[in-house]
Each structure stands twice: as structure tokens, then as C-alpha cells.
Amino acid sequence: MLQKKLLGSKILITSTLLLGGCNFFPEPASLIQSPQQNLASGQSTKSLYQNVKNFIPTGSSLTVPNDPVSSNSIIQADFNDDGENEAVTFYKSNVTANKVGAVVLHKEEQQWSPLVNFSGNGYEISWGSATDIDGDGIPELLIGWKMGVSAGNVLDIYKWSDNHFVKITQLNYHELELIESQAQFRLAIWKREFDDVYKVDVVKWNQGTFVSDKTLYPSYFLKVSDYFQQRAKAVPDAAHYWYYLADSLVKAKQPESALHAINKGMTLSTVVPPFNQYDELKKTIEAQIESRGNQDVQYYVPYADLTINIPKQLAPMISIEDQEGVSNEYIVNVYITDQKKKGLLFSIEIHSKDFTSREELPFPIILETEHLMYMIRLSSENPFIEDQDNLLYKTFNQASNVMNDISASIRLGAPFPKYVNTEDTLLINQITEAYRQITHVNIGGELKSETLETFTYQQKEYRFLGEDINTHEKLIDYLSSSFTTDAIQDYIDTAGIIEHNKRLAQPNADGGSLLTYPKASVIQARDLGSEKQYDLRVPLANSLSFEVIHISFRKTEAGWRISSSPLSL
User: Fold this and answer.
1) Top-level CATH class of 420-568?
2) Radius of gyration of the chain (CA)
3) Please, is 294 exposed, middle or buried when counting C-beta atoms within 10 Å of its C-beta (0-12, 13-18, 19+)?
4) Is domain 37-182 in CATH 2.40.128, yes or no?
5) Residue range 3-26, pLDDT digits in tens
6) What's the rounded Cα separation, in Å, for the pair 167 and 198?
């Protein structure tokens, strides 16, 4: 994952779509299906771990790939389509510096035997997954080797063919995302050009090679443009950020925004790339705008999953921002702006049926889903009335005259094919499972009867935990698939769990949460090597209102585990 600036723990997060670019967040996990591929699955048991250790080189130990976070030191997948999973075991040498590898084991008649030992040139396993890249229904083995901070990584992709593994391709990358769209996997490859500037492409497998998948450019390059917009905002006098922002916006089919970015860059001192490339890109942008004719500009608001058509002549002076309301509603605001001043044209309010009844809405519903109701609130007057000769005043009136057309264009969904970030989805699944586990403990575990066994200790009432988690060994074993040992102990101490008559007990108190982790989305990530930090946007019940939850993972011998306190979920 790219190391991006963290948003912090704000509950209010605004995404803006305007001439300067647009913030793009992954869609909620509830709107997508779990990716049909195997990153680190299979029925791995302690006996399997003991067996595979016999086949790694002497003086080596198991290691866990840096990505995806859901990966473990062993991947199980059926690479040869014989109905039996192979086991890929990642290892590192404890004798020879910077030596890592992977052994593939095959099971026959309940006995494991080695098929092949892959040894890369890198000093870490940067990626490990079993993924059906070519779309034939059989997974390929993807292994990334970390070469260095500057050199980046090398990705080898192996396919089982004619009774052995064949390397079908090799790619260089600095950052890698595995994404899925329309039941096919793609790779988003970020290669560092210089400093924190990347050349980005989205590729798919086609007739024996990777080719650019331009059908996904409009959705994926919104994310890329957000990356460069953050850089341009942080260092506005750096011309190259504006160039790469403009380039990403062109690929995202946002030429009006791209034109502003390239014009800004051309007013600054240009070194890399040279000025003639700015001029060439500007001509490309102008050609894209011209090719549209009078076609409306389609603005997509990712978190609200809404598309709004804006007349072409108004688009240069429109900005769209979305944020939480004060009463569990979510609001999409559409402004008239010259980027110095702005005035509200209209708002789309999105109310959850969990919190608001139809009768409570002051305006008619324009869209409705099973859980949400959408209404429009128009601005009561022209906010620029004090200067009626101003372009803003005239543009507002012009927009007001076509409000019926704009309102009628509002619809659910995106105007382009969307994608799913596979790692984010698996991460959300892993966190959701951790939340389920900690909720199970909080309610007392599996109880034999509806009557709680309680007792009083130091003037506080306690209840015994269920039989499945009523000892330290059972509780730690239950939570260890999701949390680090330190996090589990922190939970035991903080939650006030004690041992009484050789059984664990917890304070007798009720609790609950409206947080809906299956619908969460990753909004920021920070990669610190053996630790990864994430900010999640977690909706409340079936609404678009949310809380931002910060969660840390740490790489352990068993795999990536949550190192944050379980009570933070």
C-alpha cells in the first residue's frame, strides 16, 4: 500500500470533486462480493506447520510475506487442478543473510513431498498469493521479492503446466495492488519515477502477456489523481506534481479538472518533465474536452455511490463535497465556485431508515433503496446576490434554470466499470472476524444455560465465561487467530477478566455497538515494514454515517495479527 498521509481520527471527512481533482475512496465492502481467489486459505493446522518445516532448507525458519496483510507463511491452493491443495511455504535463512524462498509441497496418500524450491534474489518476500491471473479457473502462484527501497520489487508469476511450474512472466514494481473487476483479476502497478512520483498502470492478462486495461482507468486513476492532488496541495510550487495530477485526471476522464492542473503547472518552474511535455499533455486534454461536444460532465461521488450530470458549460465552476450531517444523515453538497468563493447550489441528503422515517423528511424522495432515502434541498437564494455583475452570480442563475435536468440525472452507481481492491476486502474480512470474536467474548462465550453464573468479588459482580473460553489457554487460543499475544493480554487486563475457582470471569455488564464492520472501507494506510496501520470508515448500522477506527497490524511468525487493543474495535 502507498504510504499516504493519515487523515487522523476525524469523524467528518470531506471529498471534493472540482477543477483541482477529486478524492476517491474504495467502495464499501458491503457492495461487493468477496474475491474468488486464494490469498492464504486452506485448513492450516499445527500439524501442517510442523510437517512443512521438515522441507525448508536447514537453518531456515518460516516467514510471512509483507503483502497481502491476510497472508500467512503457508498458502494452500490447487495449482494443478487435481482436486488436492498444494502447500506453498515461505522461508528465510537464519544462516545466510538476505536469503528467502518458497517451497511448494504436494500431498499424496496423506504424505507431503516437495515439488519445487523457488529462491529469489530479494531479501524479503514482498508478496505471496495464489491468484487466477489468466482467468482459466486455476490459480497461479505470485511471489514478490523485495530488492531494495530504490530498486523496488520483482514479481514472479508461475503457472502449473506439463507437470511442473513455469514462470509465465516477471514484473518490476514499487507498489502493487491486486484488484478485481467483472470477475477478472488485474494488477495495479506503481513504479517510482523519482522521489514520491510514480508511473502507474492497470494491467490484465491477455493472450499470454499483460496489457493495459483502459476500461478501468476512469475508476482507478481517480485514486491516482487523489494521490497527486495530496502531493500538489502539500507542495503547490512543485510543477511536476501538477503535471502528474493532470495526467492522472486525463486517464480518469476528468479533462476539465486536468486542464486546471496542467495550466497551474505551466505557470511554475518546470524541470522534470521538460516543458514541451506539459504542452503536449495540454493539447491532449483540450482534444479530450473538444471530443465531448456538448455532452454533460458526469461526476461520481464514491462513498455515496451517486452520479450527477452537470452541463458542460457549468462544469468548470462546479465543486462537489460530501460529508456527514448532524443527525446521522449523509450530505452531498454541490457548489458554484471560482475556487476563491463558493456558494451552495443544492444538497442531496441521504437518510437511513434505521434513524429517520419517511414522514420526517421535509422534501420529496428522489431515490430510495432498501435502507436509504435520498432527497434534494435547494438553496433558498443566490448566495452571490451582493454582486450581480459577478460571473458567480450569473453562473448560479444559469445553473438554477437547469436544476430540473440536473436533478433528473442523479442516479445510483458509477458511470464506468468499478473495481474491488482485493487486499482491502480481505483486510475487512479479517477485521470483521476479529470483531465477531471479541463480541463473542464480550457476551460471555458459549453458555450452557440462559441463567448466568455470577459472583461478587471486591464489591463488583462478575459472571463466568462460557466453557469454550473459560481458561486462559482457551481464551488466548480463541483470539490468537486475529490478535497478537500482547493485544490479547491487554484486553484481558483492560476488560477486567479474572480467574476465580480455576475459571475465567468478566464483569457482569451489557454492551453493544452499531458499527457495521462488513460494510467498512479503508480510507488510509501506512506501511511501516513489520507494522501496518489502517484508518477504516465504519458505517453505523445501515446508514452512511460512520466512525473512523484506527487499527494496527503486526507481522508475527503465524501471520499478520491485529496489535491494537481489541477494545478499540
Assistant:
1) alpha beta
2) 27
3) exposed
4) yes
5) 333 333 222 333 334 433 343 333
6) 27
